[in-house]
Amino acid sequence: DGQAGVCVDIKECKSLYAILTNQDITDADKTFLRDRHCGFVNGTAAVCCDLEAKRDTRSVSTVNDLLPKPEDGKCGRDTSNNRLIGGQFAKLDEYPWLVRLQYKTEDNELKFLCGGSLINERYVMTAAHCVRNPGSFELNGVRVGEYDTSKDQDCDDGDCLPKVQDILVEEIIVHPEYNSRKHKNDIALIRLNEPVQLNEFIQPICLPFSEQFKTNTFDGKRLYTSGWGTAGGGTGTPINIKQNTQFVGVNNEKCNEIYSSHNIDVGQDQLCASPKNGIDDSCKSDSGAPLMTQDPKSNKGNWYAVGVLSFGSRCGQTDWPDVFVRVSEYLDWISQTVKA
């Protein structure tokens, strides 16, 4: 394609090897790989690999100026006015970065199935499985500024939210090493076809660039997630009002002991957490929602998305932790992907 490249063992070319090992590989993907074939290295098929694609996409170093920073007061702002956190329902102004993903069915009906988080005016972070083959549905757009799905306008003691914003999708960017069968690299970005209009109730969340988030195991730490989900541990009816759910971090060693019976390996690029109350688990439609924490070293209390909800074995049960993508492992990829 005219770009600088090098002929290497396909296993050394991360982006092309991810295509090869994807269980959802298409005929077009196979043709693309054949076109990249450039010979053999030690008896193994070699491909012409872009120099950029050969780089590890998960190291943490780059900060994109398009991503808002907490020191500028432009992300993760604590809007709860020191109110008690942890009730069943979130307040009107809590978690203003939450996004609902809107899908179009084969009958042209619109449904909301997954969640996500706004990371700047143009990009939403979510789980790859929410945008890659989500049943027979097609991702149509996103909704920001939602609180109570049963009302046209949300009000509390005379304070009313602005109207929700429904924005169409311009581009879906799935992590190049996403593997649905192994639950690996389950992260994606959605570029919107127009910027979100930010206000008091629609704000981006901060990303965990600080060193403290890269090394933190979060074992036993209080964490939060939010969304709409379903009642009764995922077996009941959809919940209309934005939820506020407390989690407790679980170290990866313990998490691996639990999931080993399912032949699932929880790696360093993942986090585990269990709901503080089993029935309050983030179930069903909350896939892709952020796992959140506040900065303990900041008096501003900025919120950070340290995880993206990927999967859980037993919805609503504390003995089976939910597994999240560890966002700090993907900051370079996010920074390299986000554009003006």
UniProtKB/TrEMBL annotation:
SUPFAM superfamilies: Trypsin-like serine proteases
BP GO annotations: hemolymph coagulation; proteolysis
Peptidase S1 domain residues: 84-339
Domain spans labelled Clip: 1-49
Coarse class of the protein's main subcellular location: secreted
Name of the top EC class for this enzyme: hydrolase
Aminoacyl-tRNA synthetase is among the record's keywords: no
Top-level taxonomic group: Eukaryota
Catalytic activity: Selective cleavage of 103-Arg-|-Ser-104 and 124-Ile-|-Ile-125 bonds in Limulus clotting factor B to form activated factor B. Cleavage of -Pro-Arg-|-Xaa- bonds in synthetic substrates
InterPro entries linked: CLIP, CLIP_sf, Peptidase_S1_PA, Peptidase_S1_PA_chymotrypsin, Peptidase_S1A, Trypsin_dom, TRYPSIN_HIS
EC number: 3.4.21.-
GO cellular component terms, A-Z: extracellular region
Location of the protein in the cell: Secreted
Annotated keywords: Disulfide bond, Hemolymph clotting, Hydrolase, Protease, Secreted, Serine protease, Signal, Sushi
MF term (GO), any: serine-type endopeptidase activity
Domain comment, as recorded: The clip domain consists of 35-55 residues which are 'knitted' together usually by 3 conserved disulfide bonds forming a clip-like compact structure.
Family to which the UniProt record says this protein belongs: Belongs to the peptidase S1 family. CLIP subfamily.
Official protein name in the record: CLIP domain-containing serine protease
